[in-house]
Amino acid sequence: MSKRYKIMAVLLVVFLSLLIIGEATQPEPVNWFPGYGKQDKIPFGTYVFYDQLPSIIDKDRLEDVNIPPFEFLLDSTDPPEGTYLFLNSSVYNDASESTKILDWVAKGNTLFVASKAISETILDSLCLNTEYLSETSELKKRPLANLSNPSLKASKPYRLNKDVGTVYFDQIDTTQTTILGVYDLIRNNDSTKILEPKVNFIKTPYRKGTVILNTFPEGFTNVFMLDSLNASYTAKALSYLPKEGKIYLDQHYKNSKAKAVSPLYLILTNKYLKWSWYTLLIGALIWIYFEGKRKQRSIPVIKPLPNQTLDYTRTIAGMYLDKKDNHQIAMHQINHLLEYIRSSYTLATDHRDSAFIEKLAAKSGVEQATVKNLIDYTITIRQKAVVTEDELIKLNSLIENFKNSH
Fold it and tell me: Record's InterPro entries (predicted)?
């Protein structure tokens, strides 16, 4: 390495070192990401909520649910009973899952959702509609909230000192729906009262059950609950939950992950380790650059091997057809079908019972009778020692019909 390159390398390292020291000594910026995770201690996390929840509700009644509601409520013979509580900036169940939840509520259970975005299926079923509050006359968009019940209503509304988007119910069935709370943005710098109340907290019956909806999920977050003036809002909102029965706390519909998904998580979440890691990477790149310039040689072009997969497949298929081994061909077709189910619908195929058939029909969108006919026929074929040509053709038709039906 020449003297010139050495001087440039030293200057570059000194510059990067000063830059890294400057960045590492800066205070950590506030993370305003709306995570709503149980473990999140950021402003819009829910660590305080879940930490204080056992002091409001008996902890023996609380149970975390880490799977989708569709799977949790799948057992139609003995489904869980109680209250299903969702808390996130968005809880948008698809149509089939929303129907499953409403059917569960109709049996006498309770659904509690604190979210800005709620499933259209649920809203339509309850004759509700939401609307964003998009007024722009005020520069700040800081909401005020309060409860409607005189015994729970505070003398001054609860305030969130952070600009956030607001959603309210602009259409409700007044004959069935009970208004539990209202909110609005601060107007004319007056935070002592809600000047133009908008409905954000309601309770409505659904057959034998009850649905409670709140479009102000920030009222359950760390930044809101740690304000001493807001301490009672969350507890009062939870007072509308049933006094008995299990309360299932959804941990699936969360913006943040409960577990680290990267092996570098511990390094990248610590600013000192993070910058040490970046320094290592930059040093490695500098070393590769200078070493590569001195030692790099031309790389010969190697012609890739031809793809003979199609010819191989034709040869193997011809061998089976010549032997008329229908049983072996049927086994291959069934194995390919099971692999297709595993890869396309993430279902285990070890036990192909009625529960498996119900899950496959739900995920594929194919009628349950069609799926059952296919699975039963594959089981029958597997048990046969000899497969006729007509049976092989029927098997192929059933498989093709299933794949083309969704």
Answer: DUF4350
- Give the model confidence (pLDDT) of 277-290 as tens digits: 888 888 888 877 77
Distance CA 262, CA 162 (A): 31
Kindly tell me the burial class for residue 192, based on how many C-beta atoms sit within 10 Å of its own C-beta (0-12, 13-18, 19 or more): exposed
Classify domain 47-250 by CATH architecture: 3-Layer(aba) Sandwich (3.40)
Rounded to an integer, what distance in angstroms lies between the CA atom of residue 143 and that of residue 244? 32
Q: Outline where 79-142 has alpha helix (H).
A: 95-106, 120-125
Please tell me the predicted confidence (pLDDT) of residue 13: 78
Question: Cα dihedral sign for 361, 362, 366, 367?
Answer: positive
**Three-point CA angle 406, 392, 356, nearest 5°:** 45
Q: Where is average pLDDT lowest: 78-82, 203-207, 236-240, 315-319?
A: 315-319
Token pair listed for 121: 């299926």
SS3 for 242-258, per residue? CCCCEEEEECCCCCCCC
CA distance 258 to 236: 27
Structural domain spans, the chain: 3-25+263-295, 47-250, 309-403
- As given in the structure block, the two tokens for residue 125 are 């079923």
- Distance set, CA 209 to CA 83, 108, 213, 288 (Å): 10, 4, 14, 66
In sequence order, the 6+-apart residues with CB closer than 8 A to the CB of 330 are 381, 387, 391, 392, 395
The torsion angle over the Cα atoms of residues 111, 114, 118 and 121, rounded to 10 degrees, is 10
Question: What DSSP assignment string belongs to 356-400?
Answer: HHHHHHHHH---HHHHHHHHHHHHHHHH-SS--HHHHHHHHHHHH
Nearest to 86 by CA among 112, 125, 116: 112
Residue 334 CA to residue 376 CA, distance in Å, equals 12
Asked whether the whole model's pTM tops 0.85, one would answer: no
pLDDT in tens, 357-406: 898 888 888 888 888 998 888 888 888 888 888 888 888 888 888 888 76
Q: In which element (H, E) is residue 80 found?
A: none
Strand-pair partners of 124: none
- Which H helix or E strand runs over 35? none
Alpha-carbon gap, residue 102 to 113, rounded angstroms: 13
Alpha carbon distance, N-terminus to C-terminus of the chain: 64
